[in-house]
């Protein structure tokens, strides 16, 4: 029996179909690519995670590596011994310098005694002034010899400390490109160390965006894809725009400080920075394009949507995505405003043939 309840159910079903978009003969529901004003437009830049403090340790003296106490991934404390180079020759130099100091000290004692004796004889007028002057000169020469050898010994002791590499600060060992027995040479990288407590994201900003960005960037966001502790783009709290532009790339470095409580971040990770700037060559920001998240197709490293042509055929088109917002995702390139896209990517994939995809 046809009742008001039945009529209401039919109306609700029809309204849901209309909300999803036009339904084609092949059963695919579509929706047009929508736009959202121009005030919230943003420019996406590829970036990289860097450590504020990252050090590559190398030796100041040559020698074979005899002790290697760390490996990549180890956490070290400030002053901890990391690597030791064969220092037997340096130790022998220190011992030889110490022996020379002892010999010079003995000569100084003899010269001091002789000078004191000559002073007593001169007081009794037994020797001339010239004899006293010669004794004084010998004493001063012996004293200078002792000072010179002591300085040489301290230099040898200091050089012997170059054969041990210690951690300059507490951090994590990033890379150890050497093994036991390798020859360490001055300037050769031995250990790379970074401080995980201070990280940042660095992006190269084209010079066409510098005027719109300003010297005190506001509204900058950053994103590290795949990081479970971050859900989408995050507002940057500390932003630094370096005042120099690279002559080769014509870009300036933008540094975004990361919070201290983030986990799972290491230097070298891919990141993305969003700038609330006008598009190049346009005075005001352009409207951004948005599609439903259900319309996205991900195949390996390719991301696309099914776009319907004039004949109603769904064709796969690669797109470049921006920031997500709820159930919608911003599209930076690949589609135009108003183009119909399939809201159910899986249904569109089943309904199309490989020859229809592009």
From TrEMBL:
CusB-like beta-barrel domain mapped to chain residues: 201-276
Keyword tags: Coiled coil, Signal, Transport
Signal peptide range: 1-25
Record Gene3D superfamilies: 2.40.30.170, 2.40.420.20, 2.40.50.100, Helix hairpin bin
Residue ranges of every copy of the Multidrug resistance protein MdtA-like C-terminal permuted SH3 domain listed in the record: 291-344
Domain Multidrug resistance protein MdtA-like barrel-sandwich hybrid per the UniProt entry, residue ranges: 53-188
Coiled coil: 132-159
Main localization (coarse): other
PANTHER family tied to this protein: HLYD FAMILY SECRETION PROTEIN (PTHR30469:SF38), MULTIDRUG RESISTANCE PROTEIN MDTA (PTHR30469)
Family: Belongs to the membrane fusion protein (MFP) (TC 8.A.1) family.
Annotated protein name in UniProt: Efflux RND transporter periplasmic adaptor subunit
Organism: Hydrogenophaga atypica
Lineage: Bacteria, Pseudomonadati, Pseudomonadota, Betaproteobacteria, Burkholderiales
